[in-house]
Amino acid sequence: MEDKKPIIELKDVTFTYASTETPALKGVNLTIYEGEYVALMGLNGAGKTTLQLTFNGVIPNMMMGDFEGTVIVSGMDTDEYPVREMAKVIGLVFDNPEFQLSQMTVAEEIALGLENIGTPPAEMHRIIAESLEIVGLSGFEDRSPFGLSGGQQQRLSIASALAMKPRIVVMDEPTSNVDPIGKEEIFAVAAQLNRERGMTVIMAEHEVEVMAAYADRIIVLHKGEIVLNGTPHEVFTQVDTLKSIGLRVPQATELAYQLDQKRLASYAGKYPVTTEEAVQDLTDKFGKGG
Amino acid sequence: MQGVAIPITMVAGDSYIHRLNPLPKLFIALGVLILSFATRNPLVLGVVFALGLVFVTAAGIWKSYLRVVGILFPISLTLVVMQSIAPAFPRPWTPITDFGPFTIYQEGIYSGVSMLLRIFSMTTFALVMIMTTHPSDLFTSLQKIGMPYVLNFILTMTLQLIPILQNEFAIVLSAQKSRGMKGSGFGAVLPSMVPVFVGAIERVQQLSISLESRAFGSTGIKTSFRNVTMSLKDYVIMVLGVLATLATTVWVIADKSLDWSRTLIFPPTLSIIIVALAAIGFVAFFILAISYVLRA
Ligand SMILES: Nc1ncnc2c1ncn2[C@@H]1O[C@H](COP(=O)(O)OP(=O)(O)O)[C@@H](O)[C@H]1O
Ligand SMILES: [Mg+2]
Known about the structure:
By secondary structure, chain A is of the alpha/beta class.
């Protein structure tokens, strides 16, 4: 990551919502690099949503509360730019898709952001078609956003965000209202945006197996503080720390951890985090002799 | 509650009126509105109303139109009853006959009947406009002639919010029912307003964050997705429509002989029949509506 440019930098960020006592974020320091795929993990109430809201300046610009520290996104201090200006470089997809929709048709929903940034109408049609294609909603142009399923609404929200061609897409539990097939589709879209378009993707998500496979980096939040921050290997091998704060580890890691605990195999802390790695590792350890 | 959905929406179609630009339709409807308020003459209002029905036919929207009229007509009947016994008219009033404890006045019947016609002439034109125009097209056209973008958005969102709130209302009501609370009657309807209202505020807050995050309200050039063009034909129709309604308005105001309030005489029997029918019509509608709400 050293060769990459930082795109989001948080310095000593502390935020306390108005009318609450304990800070939702406590002294957060964080650097995210251009092109990274970052997973935010943590229990409900850990501060994932709050952290994401600092990325495009909703905090401190639109939320009441006490804010300290600085957030620099793509060279802009969020304290000095309104959210609507930040929107040109960073798109947010919130966890409740229905609350983000306002237009009469799917096409107009996507066009809303484009109108705001002054995209020429001739180009809009192409961008709308392209964005719908990416999220698998081609042919839905004239449907009402409110008549879509939860998963389709979520994908429409994603399409609306990515149509504006931001450099960063932030998604807050985008699969929470979605059936298993819909989840797969959303993960695939996020991976595609990251790998093929080089977008920086930041996703709050509970699916550890999927994040172990896709993400470049895992950030674990607990009670408003970053407790772990590193590659999936660096983070998921900290099984004791994760368990102590109530988080699950990938099944592959759990299996190895159990074997290690029972002294059936020795890992020296280097647990596998994906199924493929576990299979490879078990083949190496047990497959040859038997 | 689904049955109570507001029936005033666009009716899909491809009539000549559907294909007209929204602006001529809007200006003609506005012209008729002004004209309707400029006169009480039943003949003028009746002719305008009849003309409106011609457009309803041309647009092919009779079914949807009648659904609105079915609600509007009984409600307007109260006006006829109220006006007959207490006219909105300068005194002195000319009594025609007694109707129970009340007195029916000549000016009252005149005023009631013309108000009824006035309501129908202007709503018929308004409904033809609304039911043949895509709301987004209308708002886009208005934006083109200077309506602020934010107002365009508020109008769009309000149209979206109505069915959503209705739906949430139904959900809260059935949730209350399943928890053993009263699921019908006014006793149930009132408490369910609270969660719906709180939900609406939360929704609007979320939406405003989400909109800002999509550059809503940002400075710089804004473009428009919907492409609504004015053809020469649209301009001609708009100018002719506005001129026609304006000229008629000027005429009905200038021509004092059109004031028939003391010349169009309602005989006592006819007056009693009109007022009684209006009262019966309204009461019947009221009872039906109440029993419907209580059943929901
Ligand atoms: N709008 C708000 N007002 C007050 N407190 C809030 C608000 N949103 C979140 N919180 C509090 O901030 C903390 C972090 O919440 P959040 O960022 O939503 O966590 P997560 O997204 O990880 O579930 C929680 O204690 C939560 O109760
Ligand atoms: Mg959250």
